């Protein structure tokens, strides 16, 4: 045995690193199995290599050695009594034992798999694939399924001797250990109340077994209250002991983890995140998302599927997807970070109304959406933005962000970035900034497509994850029917920006000032004076008419109260909310920042390029490594 081990070691030293080729058994057939640098292939003997299977080593989850003899031993079954009776009828003990075993194997294979009335159990007796191949090893790898989903598949190869089997297991293990991008230790946060409250069960049954198979150690924390994960990451977590952070929950749980990690990084790097012009430091740890929420928009936009198994496999293989983050400030006060949707008007009203209906679950968004659509409120204000003129692509080029996106990989020289920053600071109030004033049904800023199962295209299908910009969508005042057309295009492939009242801009910064917050420097002074004079004239006329028509108004009010009592009971709040119906003065909406309501409507936003990284690779359009034959 020692000589064989020395010979094996000598062969390993002489063999090129990471290269093996052998004829192994797979499902009673001989296969040519080869391990090239970075690629594992197996092809049935005497068939072209293009008809075989090719798996990148980076997508191999684990490899483990098996013993076929122990795994295929015959277990007792419901026909043990029959077998014992058959063996006892023979006079020879050795012969009876052999005969009984053979009869049991043949009968149990046909009877036990069809069920036995006495035991009421279904049993299947595994049989040995080959008597001459008592050793085997199993390779677990990633297999792509429909709709960007990943699945874990196992393939078991049988070897003629233990030395060959050990050589394969040892070489594959070395290849997996050399993958530096793979995490070894993870910090996991579970939100037990997200979505349908299945977070703990999803992690225990679907995620934890995969991490265990990949030899990933985890520290699990079940959150007890809101912002538990954020506060723990900011103060208590020992981040140097982990290779990544995983959140099990919805978009709100991801926002907690992202805020805690970004704020912790800025504190450690000595950056003042309260200053709007401060350049933020990139986070060192990657974030993994296990979807267990209501919409899981961020997971769908970065992976392509809301599937816990798919997300777990992306974490195991160590994928890395950079992502932009927008900082939101009110003056010199920091409010929040945003990675998906920053919405004012319609989406802000829907969120604020749905918060009062949390007992309804995910259905509250549908109810609030219908209610706010019928109210059809618009808001006045001024939007100022800094266009991103030096980036590839436009919001309407219909080129979605996918794996290996050219737009996201486009990096400008450092000198140009410094020049642009200086130009930005000099022209902060100059010609580089553009302003739009008017009445808006919705103002949305998205740093990703915001696609989800209900809206496969998202709010901005061509938005990119890591290009350092955000798409600013302005929906001006329009009729209900026109606004409905715009909303319905989110669920179809039609161009949702091909409407006269909708405009979209790719920007690096923008700020919004509501009508009631604007000062004389931001509005035309003459317009203010004219409005003031008109109001004074109207007030005088109203006072004169009130004196002359006081009695007539009282009678008319009584008649209207009797005639309109039933209509007020039906419409109620909708009528009071509609400005055109009740002539109520314009009021302010609220900002929906990734599912959280901001306390201020007057904000300024800046996009930070690739501030965080995720365990993802973007949405894959076509399977990777198809028809790739490694060089020999």
Overall description:
This protein has 632 residues and is α+β, with helices and mostly antiparallel strands. 35% of the residues lie in helices and 25% in strands. It is built from 20 helices and 21 strands. Strands 12, 13, 14, 15, 16, 17, 18, 19, 20 and 21 form a ten-stranded antiparallel sheet that branches. Strand 12 and strand 13 form a beta hairpin. The longest helix has 24 residues, at 525-548. The chain is elongated, with a radius of gyration of 33 Å.
Amino-to-carboxy terminus distance:
32 Å
Number of DSSP strands?
Answer: 21
Poorly predicted residue ranges:
11-18, 70-130, 518-526, 573-586, 624-632
Q: Average the pLDDT over all residues and give the rounded result.
A: 80
Given helix and strand content, the structural type is: alpha+beta
Give the helix level as a range of percent. Answer: 25-40%
Content of β-strand:
15-25%
Instruction: Report the sheet with the most strands, covering strand number, pairing sense and barrel closure.
Output: 10 strands, antiparallel
Number of helices: 20
Radius of gyration: 33 Å
> Outline, from the CA principal axes?
elongated
Question: Can you tag this structure with a few keywords?
Answer:
632 residues; alpha+beta; 10-stranded antiparallel sheet; 4-stranded antiparallel sheet; 20 helices; 35% helix
Task: Summarize the structure in short.
With 632 residues, the protein is an alpha+beta fold.
């Amino acid at each position: 045995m020692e000589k064989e081990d020395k010979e094996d070691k000598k062969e390993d030293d002489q063999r090129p690193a990471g290269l093996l080729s052998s004829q192994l058994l797979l499902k009673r057939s001989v296969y040519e199995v080869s391990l090239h640098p970075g690629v594992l292939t197996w092809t049935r003997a005497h068939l072209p290599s293009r008809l075989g299977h090719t798996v990148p080593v980076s997508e191999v989850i684990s490899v483990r050695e098996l013993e076929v003899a122990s795994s295929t031993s015959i277990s007792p079954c419901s026909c043990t009594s029959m077998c014992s009776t058959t063996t006892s009828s023979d006079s020879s003990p050795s012969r009876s034992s052999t005969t009984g075993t053979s009869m049991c194997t043949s009968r149990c294979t046909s009877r036990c798999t069809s069920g036995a009335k006495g035991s009421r159990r279904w049993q299947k007796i595994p049989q040995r694939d080959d008597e001459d191949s008592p050793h085997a090893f199993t390779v677990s790898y990633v297999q792509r399924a429909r709709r960007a989903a990943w699945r874990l598949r196992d393939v078991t190869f049988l070897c003629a001797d233990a030395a060959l089997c050990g050589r394969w297991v040892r070489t594959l293990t070395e290849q997996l250990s050399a993958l530096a991008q793979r995490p070894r230790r993870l910090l996991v946060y579970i939100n037990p109340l997200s979505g349908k409250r299945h977070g703990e069960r999803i992690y225990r049954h679907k995620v934890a077994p995969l991490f265990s198979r990949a030899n990933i150690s985890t520290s699990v924390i079940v959150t007890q209250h809101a912002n538990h994960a954020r506060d723990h990451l900011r103060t208590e977590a020992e981040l140097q002991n982990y290779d990544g952070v995983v959140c099990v929950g919805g978009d709100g749980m991801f926002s907690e983890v992202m805020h805690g990690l970004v704020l912790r990084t800025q504190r450690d790097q000595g950056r003042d995140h309260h200053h709007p012009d401060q350049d933020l430091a990139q986070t060192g740890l990657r974030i993994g998302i296990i979807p267990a929420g209501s919409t899981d928009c961020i997971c769908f936009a970065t992976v392509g599927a809301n599937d816990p198994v798919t997300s777990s496999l992306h974490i195991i293989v160590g994928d890395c997807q950079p992502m932009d983050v927008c900082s939101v400030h009110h003056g010199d006060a920091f409010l929040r970070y945003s990675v998906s949707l920053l919405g004012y008007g319609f989406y802000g009203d829907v969120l604020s109304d749905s918060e009062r209906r949390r007992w309804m679950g995910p259905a509250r968004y549908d109810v609030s959406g219908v209610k706010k659509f019928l109210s059809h409120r618009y808001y006045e204000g001024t939007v100022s933005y800094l266009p991103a003129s030096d980036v590839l692509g436009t919001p309407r080029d219909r080129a979605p962000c996918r794996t290996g996106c050219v737009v996201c990989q486009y990096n400008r020289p450092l000198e140009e970035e410094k020049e642009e920053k200086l130009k930005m600071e000099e022209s902060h109030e100059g010609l580089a900034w553009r302003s739009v004033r008017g009445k808006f049904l919705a103002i949305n800023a998205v740093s990703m497509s915001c696609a989800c199962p209900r809206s496969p295209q998202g709010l901005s299908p061509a938005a990119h994850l890591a290009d350092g910009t955000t798409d600013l969508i302005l929906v001006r005042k329009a009729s209900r029917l026109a606004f409905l057309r715009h909303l319905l295009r989110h669920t179809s492939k039609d161009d949702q920006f091909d409407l006269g009242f909708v405009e979209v801009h790719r920007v690096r910064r923008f700020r919004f000032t509501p009508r009631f917050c604007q000062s004389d420097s931001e509005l035309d002074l003459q317009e203010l004076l004219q409005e003031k004079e008109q109001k004074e004239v109207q007030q005088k006329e109203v006072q004169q008419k009130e004196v002359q028509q006081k009695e007539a108004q009282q009678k008319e009010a009584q008649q209207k109260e009797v005639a309109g009592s039933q209509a007020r009971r039906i419409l109620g709040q909708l009528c009071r909310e509609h400005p055109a119906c009740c002539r109520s003065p314009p009021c302010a909406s609220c900002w929906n920042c990734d599912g959280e309501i901001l306390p201020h409507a007057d904000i300024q936003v800046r996009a930070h390029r690739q501030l965080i990284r995720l365990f993802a690779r973007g949405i894959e359009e076509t399977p990777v490594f198809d028809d790739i034959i490694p060089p020999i």
